Please model this.
Amino acid sequence: MPSQTTQTHSDRKNSSAVTTKSGARQTWVRFVVPSAADLLFVALLLGLSCGAMGGLLLRDSDIGWHIRDGQQILLTHATTRTDSFSSTMSGHTWYAWEWLYDVLIAAIDHVFGLNGVVFFTAAVVAATFALSLKFALLRGGNLVVTFFLLILSLGASAVHFLARPHVLSWLFVVIWFELLDSDASAHQASQRLLWLPVMMAVWVNLHGGFVLGFLLVAVYLIGGAIEYVINPEQRRRIAGWLKYLGGIAALTLVASFINPYSYHLHLHIYRYLSDRFLMSQISEFLSPDFHGAAQQCFAVLLIVAIATPAVIRRGLSASRLLVLLFAAYSGLYATRNLPTSALLITLVIAPVLSTAIGQATGNPKIVSWLRQLLSGISSFGFRMQRLDSDLRGHVLTILVLAIGVWACWHQGRIGSIELMNAHFDESRFPVKASNYIAGHGVHEPIFSLDYWGGYLIYRLYPETKVVVDDRHDLYGDQFIKNYLKIVLVQPTFAEELDQMKINWVLVPRWSSLANVLRLTRNWTVVFEDGNAALFRRNISLSP
Model:
């Protein structure tokens, strides 16, 4: 008997050791194997910074004047209030409403160069979509369905994958929506909403997209009022939540005045966005052209957003339905709204569409082959989601971030391997012409295209200033009209050049203005390559 007792205790001890070892192995796997959100983050980060899409983020030259403005703020220890980059607007009041982003990006450029600027932007974009996936899954989305909608959102957003502060607004919109919607769904006054004023105090100094925060709060206030009317039995709870949200909205409004320009910033943005002439001339404020791939991805999302509520009529609250309508309208109104609209549609529709597919698997009115297909999608998606929910480690994400920062610190290289080489494409920007201007000591203002202005500021300031760049709110209607007369070679273009006292013109080589200046005797081509032509006025031949 004693020997049997000893053997029993030994068996229990061995069994416990095996169980402990198995549990330790499961814990190790959970913290090492990346989740779906981690994989999406890493794929986007590598793709946008050092992959095939690595050159996408510098397709726009706005980042040039953002970096220079940030450097100026760091040198003077004061926020910018007047323009110094343009010869025509020098000394005029300038609302640099993205000053905090400018400081951040200038510091990154100083330490890591353009590789760091691109890597930071890629990380923000990757975090936005990874968080969107995480939030949608937590709200009941099927992994396969949610991933499909996110791919469409990525396609719709690709048109604005640019190194500019608007990518931070994408991230803020996703977090802002999650905070609002998680409380609105239960009509509970959670302390989480106190983060909205805190976020607004930062957002208002990063990008003008902070206006979206107020619009979303207004949407949820209106949605709550509708639910108050149609749900008599819950009126007391809804009323309490509406009062709380109203108080949060008031605090958020106060927080938005924590900026260098106080309420004058709000008035300036209102005047800018309500300026019909500028809104009709700036391409990203125009409605999307649905012949493009990005716009077609958004069109598919719209179709899904319309069809899903029609199938499940009880799947959307009044607030979420209003968010869908707001996202659809803003995306159709302006191309620049496509990313935020696509993300909002995905966050709202993913859980509802997942529920619709799950319910369709048991609907006898649907043909058997389609039921089997939907059943496979539903079961596989939720099975993968259960596995994914156990993966809590971020080892791969941290490792890739560390390698990326190391590469940026070493000029984009890991040893002899070049991972990143961020630069402005000389087939898109006047890189060689700018080198000529800098090398030949041209210090007079340069007239060029507005979308080249940011690059020229980045490359030539402070030795040489531009005549115009794409800060259209600074220049105003009348100046932009005169600028267009020159660029479009209207009958009075020569007089406009004279009135602006322009002696140097840098334009695309085969543009209409370049062709006309070649035929004008008081203008001479001093530099030309496959992309740009630089003209100098012959002062002795001018009237």
